[in-house]
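FAQ: What does the model actually see?

It sees only this:
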Amino acid sequence: MEKEEYERPDSSQLLRRLQFEEEEKLKKSRGKLKIFLGYAAGSGKTYAMLKAAHEARKHHIDVVAGYVEPHARPDTQALVKGLETIAPMEIAYKGVKLREFDLDAALKRNPRLILVDELAHTNVKGCRNEKRYQDVKELLRAGIDVYTTMNIQHLESLNDIVGNVTHIEVRERVPDKVFDHADQVEVIDIEPEELIERMKEGKIYGTLQAERALENFFRREKLVALREITLRRTADRVNRIAEEERNALGEMDYHTGEHVLVCISPSPSNAKVIRTASRLAYAFHASFTGIYVETPKMQEADEKNKAAVKNHMDLARALGADIVTVYGTDIAYQIVEYAIVGNISKIVMGRSRKQWMFGKSRSEVLEQLTYRAPNIDVYIIPDMKHTKEYREKGKSSEKKEESGKMVLLELGEITAIMALSTMAAYIFQWFRLSEANLIMVYMVGVLLSSYVADKKIYALYSALLSVLSFNFFFTEPYFSLKAYDKGSPVTFAMLFAVGFFMASMTRQLKAQTRESAKKAYRTEILLENSRKLRRCRTREEVWKQVAAQVGKLLNLSIIIYPVDKKGNLEEPMLFPRKGMGLPELKENVNGKERAVAQWAASNRHRAGTCTHTLPDANAMYLPVQSTEEVKGVMGILLEERRPVKDFEYGLLIAMLNETGVKLQDTFLEKEIKLN
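And it is asked to produce this:
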């Protein structure tokens, strides 16, 4: 009898299966989300949701209407009757009382099924969460099933496509993850002609509003396009879910292995580029990464440009991208290097009218990619809408920056250095040293100037000033810009070229030195934190150590709430910054702040100031968690209410993750034995 050959199971396949099974277990403990999706207002989403709610009641399911938009539509309003409703909150905003969904009342009521209309809605300031879909997430985590509604134009990745169809910018958007991870999506389909007829009959809007809508949004060609987008995106979602299940169960015959890289910049058109890259990654079932190259120029950019970069990073994260930040002066080189190392198969970047990106020509980027990584596909996404405006704004802001007092001061410093170089050259001439020595004096002056100011225009100015000074003071005829010697023009040209080159190289060297110092600082902090954490023998020592390291990094006051086995906050540990007393920090330990920290612990998500959840708090609260549970919450008191910079935030998260690993149960058992 022949012995059957033993086939070793694929480790990656086993891992995918385990992850799939773990996700399925987690789904069982969470509530179910059903989205009623339409392609335009008045398609019948809310009506269908209410009909489904009444059907659920017939099957003895505990149903509550959490929030239903008060439409002036008799058929819809009639269906609200007979359902238990949660009274909306009334929040005063700019002198007007606005109705909002009462999340706390819904959680307290804890029904089996709750209706929450308008998933893409932005909550008024004063609510716990910025967006209604965040409210829905909390309901799902509490084990409550949710019925909700949304239109296709509110889906984040389709925002630019829908904008091209409707010529309307939709500001309220829902991340694709929320849509794709919904347990059920029901498309409320209606013929465009029927929808237009309903609009004419006044069943959707009032007379005046209906007339404007029919002239603009509710035109047949637009409705047909939106309907097609809705059906296609829903079909893509179904196919993606089926493929993920087959892949997890080992029934896939192929694996694409695609990896899409999108370039992030402060340009207004970058949002379109990111959304296009997201759709490309979705279509190819590919990994999705966003890369941002932080240059010395960008580090000195105004707050508007920095805010634009942050918003684009947040958008990429919302669309499922992993964000990578690299540092350097040559952006094209950094992109190419990461593309090679990261096994990137496709790169998506933007294009302006002049085909310039990040200050580098598109042709330069493509040339480097073609030469160093010929197998990478490059996609160029044009956007003529924002480019001109961005370029004009960029130029005006740059001119404004260059015309400031700082510019005059730096030019004055360069002039003073050249004056000192001229005096030194006079001394050299008095000692009858050769002309070459005088030229070297000016070379030293150019080098010193490049340390004072490191912009290209200053390198040009210092090189030009050195040539003019040498010609004026040390070339016959003296005190004139004329020159008798035939070789003088060559000397001047060489002096200018060498001076400009030296100044430019010094400027780059300074930038590289700063980046090297930053990387070294990051490495040193992480190594020091890791080294000191290993020496800790009790939980208290761990908290004190990480608080000291974070305080050293940010120079901000720290509040730490350890979390017990039941998930409740213990007594806080206070670590005031230098210059702040303990009583002053204690003022931020109150019921309101503690509630925010408890929310961060319960939901395993950051909250507080400079976040989208409970932003009215005084501190930003970050959960410190191991692989299994939350071990504590760190509160960082942001007194000026400014967000932590990306570089420092990355270090902070790395330190907290390491702390969570240190606080594993095995470590706590050692502590118990010690005591």
